[in-house]
Amino acid sequence: MVLAAVTVTLPAALGTPPLDVVRYAAYLLYAVVLPGTLLYRAIRPTPRSLLEDLTYGTVVGLLAETAALVTASLLDARALLWLWPLLAIVPLARRHLRVRDYPLRPSTTWSWTVAGIAVGFLAYLTAAFLAVNPPVPTGGPHDYMIDQLNLLAVSADLKHHFPLTVPEQGDRTLGYHWFAYGHLAASSLISGIDLPVLWFRLDLPVLAVLAVCLLAVTGWRVARHPWAGPVAAALMFTVGELVPQRQAPAFFGSITAYYSWSSRSLLYGAALSMPLIAAVATVLRRDAGKRDWLLVLLFAAGTTGAKSTIVPLVGAGVAGLCAVHLLRRNPQWTPWLLGSLLAAVEVVAVAVLYGFEGQGLRWGPFAIMIDFVGDLQHGTTVRDIPVILWGLGAYAIAMCARLAGVVGLGRRWDDTEIFLAGTTLAGLVGTLCVWHVSWSEHFFIIAAWPCAAILSAAGLTRLPWSPIALRHALTAAACLAAMSVVLRLPQWYRWSVPLPVYVLGALVLAAALLLGRRHGRFAALVVVLAAGAARLPFDAATSANLGVAYHVRVTPDQAAGARWLRAHSTPAQYVATNVHRVGGGLQDGQSLAYWISAYSERRVLLGSWGYSPESTESQSRAHRFGPALAYWDPDRLALNDAAVLDPTPARLGWLWERRVRWIFVDRAQGTPTAALPALTDLAWQRGDIAVYRLRATSNCTPVSCSDSVQSR
């Protein structure tokens, strides 16, 4: 109840209208938690705990909501989407609303520990993201991270259209893991809350609390020890990488800092992956029935659309288990059947969700270390092996310190532990061996990290411990964490870049050995596991909103113009614009300005193209990082800009044939000729922003003249 109160109070404290908070809470209970819990209770074989029913049920509710959104979109019945929960509540409430007997009940200490971890994670998200990003800029210009506005535009497109397209490329279909953004679209449709308010205030805290509770429940269930859950949650959502905070090499990724808020699909995908891990573990223990297999299928299908990296890694973990069985000359059918099921789900996802598009992934060993070794154009070579090995050692110290708990597992691992280790190893290999134009190879290790956290926590909880040992270990870890902030070593050439990590790792190891001699292996492992606890507070204090890197500045006039367009147009009406690139800042000149479609909730005929599949593929083929600077169809771009900035009746007719009904002009990126106000109707203007409405052409057909045709 305290955690729920904090989650509700937080958006209100940040200035969210109280009515929006109430409406979102009502939506969440009515449209996600209640129907999802009823559906989960109807599917799962036996009850375990109330918290499992509520958390796993919420995941089922999110998946059912996605199915309902797709159905309503295909039937052009989005206005009736709010009725879908009744399809579950009415037939199931009488039988499954109450469950009296739960065999597992967490202790009060367990519950307060999980609540404390969740509150700490909320504090980080508030300082690093929520408190520094207004939903809409009103008092002055604000720098938004580019990805935030692009993904907000994706949510807006799913709110009004299906299937998903690139929001600023007209009808260009986008193969993407869009379930998190479909959830936001459904949230807005059912609750009536503005999408930016959901994005920047209401949705992220709920996903954060859900993810923490899910990992706590899953860790308990998979490791079969109640405290494995809270320890795993702490390792993922409280403790960061073991690096000197002021000298962390650029190639070190982050499990929680930055990546927990930069892309909504990360936290959403992590939440959905945890029930899948539990379902797979149940099946591997060979005490599963048909309903357990059904849950594997349900959660696997859901995670394919939540984050594309999850199911391949889980499948790799199962494949590793099959290999171990073959080496032990003890093959079993269950892992092979499970692997086949996961492979079938992945094939369907690649065909249906991603349209067989490669998303720009290429083979590129150690490309993640490109800022440290090799070069941008050719990557790494054989001559770089000594430097790579030196950097990999530091990478292992920084990223794998939280895996030290596996020491407590002993030598004989069961199938579940082998599966968790295989999934973790697959994530690490994927991150180290794959190249991507926007460094998205980090997402492999991030997707595997729940398995790594559970595995490490399971080993730690098997060791004998005492309150005194825990207290001393946490005190030592806190001192080491503080030291990681103040530690500074001179760096005079490339080989010295990882040196601070080695020094900090040596200090942590020395402290663990000294403490372990007196208090045992448990205390030594706690020191290693918790020594990186300064990462999140330091990130929140020094790099909130990622500073000013990779941002686009949005002015109140720009946002107001886009929102006026949303209020006075229909989703079927497209927008033409002269805004293609970011103006000013570190990304000046890059085609990453997605604020028009994000705030107008309208498709742009040809806006920015940096995140289009064509951009990703062209950059991947050329082995270049970042978005494409030049548009791949210059004739189309020239026609668009000529129609906006120097219109003629023929050029405006070209726009009309492509369902364009509005022209959105930012004079800071080009001033139109006098022909534009002469041939169109000025509908709104403020500062450099002007919105014009096209007049119906004399040669248009009844269908092309209509503004009511919806894109389905």
UniProtKB/TrEMBL annotation:
The keyword Membrane is annotated on this UniProt entry: yes
Key words, A-Z: Membrane, Transmembrane, Transmembrane helix
Transmembrane stretches, start-end: 25-43, 55-75, 81-97, 109-132, 204-221, 265-284, 296-324, 336-356, 387-406, 418-437, 443-461, 473-493, 499-515
Protein name: Uncharacterized protein
Species assigned in the record: Dactylosporangium siamense
Organism lineage: Bacteria, Bacillati, Actinomycetota, Actinomycetes, Micromonosporales
